[in-house]
Every structure is written in structure tokens, then in C-alpha cells.
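Hi Q.,

Before the meeting this afternoon, I wanted you to have the FE2/S2 (inorganic) cluster prediction in hand. No need to reply - just skim if you have a minute. The sequence and ligand are here:
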Amino acid sequence: MPLPEAPTVAAVTPEALRSALRQRNGRRGQLKGRQPDDAARAEVLALLPGLDSTNAPPRDRLIEHLHGLNDRFGALFQRHLVALAALMRLSMAHVHEVASFYHHFQILPDDQAAPRLTVRVCSGLSCQLAGGAALLQRLQGVLGEGVQLLPAPCVGRCEQAPVAVVGQAPVVVADAAAVQARVQQALADPAAARHPVAPGAATFDPAARAPCAITSGDTDLAPPWVGLAAYRQAGGYQLAADLATGAVAADAVLAAMTDAGLRGLGGAGFPAGRKWAIVRSQPAPRLLAVNLDEGEPGTFKDRTYLERDPHRFLEGLLVAARVVGIDAVWIYLRDEYHGARAILQQALAELQAAPPCPLPAIELRRGAGAYICGEESAMLESIEGKRGEPRLRPPYIAERGLFGRPTLAHNFETLYWVRDIVQRGPAWFTGFGRHGRRGLRSFSVSGRVRQPGVKLAPAGITLRELVDEFCGGMADGHTLQAYLPGGASGGMLPARLADVPLDFDTAEPPGRSQGEASPSGGGGELGSPPGGTLKSHGCFIGSAAVVVLSQQDSVRAAAVNTMQFFADESCGQCTPCRVGTAKAAALMAAPRWDHATLDDLAVVMADASICGLGQAAPNAIRCVQQYFPEDV
Ligand SMILES: Cc1cc2nc3c(=O)[nH]c(=O)nc-3n(C[C@H](O)[C@H](O)[C@H](O)COP(=O)(O)O)c2cc1C
Ligand code: SF4
Ligand code: FES
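Predicted structure with the ligand bound:
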């Protein structure tokens, strides 16, 4: 019996199929849904010229374009989003999904007016200790017609608490009168709503003074910064130039980095030299992504160095790029750092005008208010113009990262120390350290100390030593009750454990640290000094954000503050974190805790969350239960 004839199958590409379907539906080249109107299209094009002259506008620039619209119109209006989607050949759903992910974008219907001004009052822990909640309360209803008042997560000025931000201008050590005065000025003159920036003219060499207090209770918003001429005069960019000419060998730099044992200073502590070697062994092109998101509540070290000394960081970036063989660099800077952004833009322009060596392509990207974008894979998603949702690993980003290419991701400060470590030698760096640890750490200290600020101190210093030697002791009238050694994520310890060395607790990072799998795993705990290790007490140092609480503070309120922060900042991708943080925050607000339910939640969050946010969120619960049971 003859077989029935098989139907003919045409080989089609997905694009040909899409085009055929569009033609059949009579909507050739048109996006679904609402179509852009001419006026909105013209407004978008006036801001983003050239968008209509390319067939394939780079999709990764979506967030930059959203910033352009948000800055110009005070909000994201539906009509502009529709026009932008059409011009970028993106679906409206995608544009809306991205825009709605970030706190700093406010989507409004076309018939609503944008706020005249937005005032944000920091609700982070250090600001809460300094009266931030009362300040927010006092400002309700008194700022005038059209002024929007919002609570905000830590804005990275915890040593200047409480902080309000009027437009883009911080008001530090703020009270209601100062905020109201600044609002009036900003309504009369928009320049008053911008962040001040000092001219570049200073000298700044922290390594020469180490260990030292970098800042001590300073409230300066625009410190003078080291411009290119001053930086070069002090020997700056010589290393980058020597590396480019071959006068210094890339392998010698790599060896110095490895010998110094510099750990990643963004939180996970992976050894920088090893990371460079791993990424260097991957096929080209390789990319570098610099993490300047600095969102961990209590952390302000990156801003402090960046707004004083941007070229030292840029030289570290160039050296890393040359040694690892990097083709292009993205710098991801948190949106809150408007002053630092202006300085970095100026420093990059100076560098590009007089390069000490051939430069890789360097692109500065602006975050949009999302803590999770500090997690490195979420940062890459955001740079690609998407929602900042952490990726599952493997593959590790060293193998497949930004735009699918092998990627070196570094915290700002890790790169900041490269020049000093190579030029002064690894022994200079390892010559610091206490209680069995080696190196220097930049502690961001805030809360109840006399002189809060960034303290460049020996790794392994204890809280007691840090407060007494670098912070002028406890603030008047306050005695130590508790402290957070690593921001909101790193847990909380009682005063009796003020002698624990503050540092990473593993000689080599474990396979997973802060929820991040290291490219090569391995590791083990350091020998326990008398006070034990942070890890043995259920804590970690993370980005070295130390928040000091006194007997006048409530540890329960502090724990609720951190859990509420995680609930607000969860990206929502996985259920244990999305539901767990919100439920835990509600349960922890009760005067007496439901320990059984909180225990269950803590286990599920720690074990089943995708990334470090959900995995570390329960630290606060467990520490309060363990060290302050009488409070809950
Ligand atoms: C929830 C979360 C938030 C993070 N936020 C930051 C951040 O704001 N800045 C940063 O440098 N690293 C942050 N990290 C760590 C980064 O994922 C990554 O380890 C780091 O950028 C790598 O650079 P390093 O090796 O130089 O530290 C965060 C990690 C997690 C899990
Ligand atoms: S743990 Fe939280 S922040 Fe991380 S991926 Fe899951 S939902 Fe997102
Ligand atoms: S600036 Fe307010 S807590 Fe950090």
C-alpha cells in the first residue's frame, strides 16, 4: 500500500514567520496595542535624537532613555512610554515591566500632573536611629502643593543622618525647618534641587596615611576632588602607562594582586587576583562591569572615595582591564549618587582627553533605585536594559555574563586599591591587620558613635577597637548595646561580642557566599581567635557597614527595619523571599514574636531563595532570637 504523501514543510526563520503573520493580520511593522501619537513621538525624539534613524536601536539603553524622560517630564507618562517602545522596537509590555521595576521611575496616566518636586526621607536604620521617622512625620502635609514626600531606603549618607533628599540635593543632619527651606529654594530656583559639586583641585592619598579615619563626622556635601593634573603630578597613571608599554608585565601585576590577598570588597570577598586569572582564561571578548551600586544600608565607603579621588579608581580599572584582556567596561552607579556621577563624568572626560594609554570603551550607566541591582547578576541584567532580577548559576558570570560574554565584576573599592597595592607592593597591604587577619578594610561606621565616617582600619579589628581608636568612642550619653557588622544583611551582635575580629571568616571563600557561587569554590574557616568569628556567631562582614546601637535603641525595631527593607527590595522572582520577607516583617512588628512561624520562614528563606538577599534576610531574626530573647 502506498504511503500517504507527506505535507510539504517550508524551512522558515522566526523573523520570516513573524513578518508573514504581520502581513496576514494587515498590521505590517506595527506593534500591538496603543499606537504612539505624533506629539508624544516628537517629544521623545527631541530628547533622544537619532532613535528613529536606526533600524536596531540598542535595547540595553532602555533605562538610560527612561531616565531622560523622567528627568525632563518629572515622571514617565504613558504616551511617552508608548512612543519610546515603538521607536526602540520593543513591546510595550517590556517597557512597562522595566519601568515599573525601579523605584525612581513613576509611571503616570497622561491626564495626571507630575509632582513639582519630590522629597525623599531616608528610612534606613542609621537615619531611623537619628530620628528619620519623626522627620518624615513632621514633613507630612507641610511642604506645599504638588510636592511629593516619600520614604526611601538608605541613600548612602548614613554618617550624616538623618538625611532627606530634595530633588537631587541632600539635606544632611536634617530637621524639618532645613528641609522646608530647601524645598522653598528649589521651587523658586531648580538649581537648588541639584547636587552641589566642588571643582577638582585637591590631593588625597589615603594609602599614605593608613590606617586612618578618612572622614570623621563630616557633613560636607561637595568635598574638593583630585583632578587629572594633580593625580598625575603625584605619580598617577604611571602604572597604567607602564603596563601598556610593557615596562611593567601583566603577570607581575597579577602576582602582586594575588600575593596581597585583596578580597572583593563588595561583600562576597572573593580574592581579586584569582578572579582576574579565571576571567583571563576565558575566550575573548571579555567585559568588565564595575559595581558602584552601594545599596547595602549603612554603606557609604565607595561614595566617600569616589567623590574625592576618582582617578585612582579609574587607574585600577585600566590596570585590571589590561591584565585581564578586557574589551569594554560598564560602570553601574547608583542613581542616588548625583554628585559622584557628575565627578565621574568629569574625570572620564579628563581621562579620554589625555589618555595615559590606549583606553577600552567605558560606559557609565545609571541605576534607578533598586537595591537588588547591587547583586552582580542583577546588575548585569540592569545594564542590559532589563528588570534587575538575579540570574540562576551556573553559568557563572566569569564564563557567561554581560551580553553572554565572560565578565569580570568588581566592586568600586576593590579596583580603587589596585594602584597602591602594585606600586607599594603586596607586603605594604598585608603588613596591616589584627587578630590573625591581613590587609586594610574601609569600614563605614554610623549610629551612636562620636565621629561616624569611613575608617580605613586593619582587617580583623574588633568593634571595640574600631569605636575607641577611630570613632572617638561612643556618642555622649550612649553605651554600646548592639552592632551590625555588615549592614542590613550581616546580622546583629550584642555588646558582649564586641571583641570579635571584623573580617571575612574564610581563608578562601566558600562555594556560596552571600548567595553567590564562586567560580571555583573551595575554602575553609580561619582559625578561631578568642572572640570567635563573625560566622560562628551567625554574622558576616559583607561590605563592612558597621551600625552601632546604644542602650537607648530598640534591637527589635532595628531588626524590623532591616526586614522591612528586604521586603521592599525583594525583586519578587522567588516565592520564599517575596512572601517570606513580607510575612516576617509583619510578624516581627508584633510586640511578642511568633517564634515557630518565624523559624519556619527563616529556614525556607535561607535554603530556597535564589540570591543573597533572601538567603541573608533571616540573619536579623536569628540574631535577635539568640542574643536578645528578652526583647521579643
Ligand atoms: C543582595 C546583594 C546586594 C549586593 N550589593 C552590592 C553592592 O551594592 N555593591 C557591590 O559592590 N557589591 C554588591 N553585592 C556583591 C556583588 O554581587 C558582587 O559580589 C561584587 O560586586 C563583586 O565584586 P568584588 O569581588 O570586587 O567584591 C551584593 C550582593 C548581594 C547578594
Ligand atoms: S532571593 Fe529575593 S531578591 Fe533574590 S531572586 Fe529571589 S526574590 Fe529576588
Ligand atoms: S543614609 Fe539613611 S540609613 Fe544610610
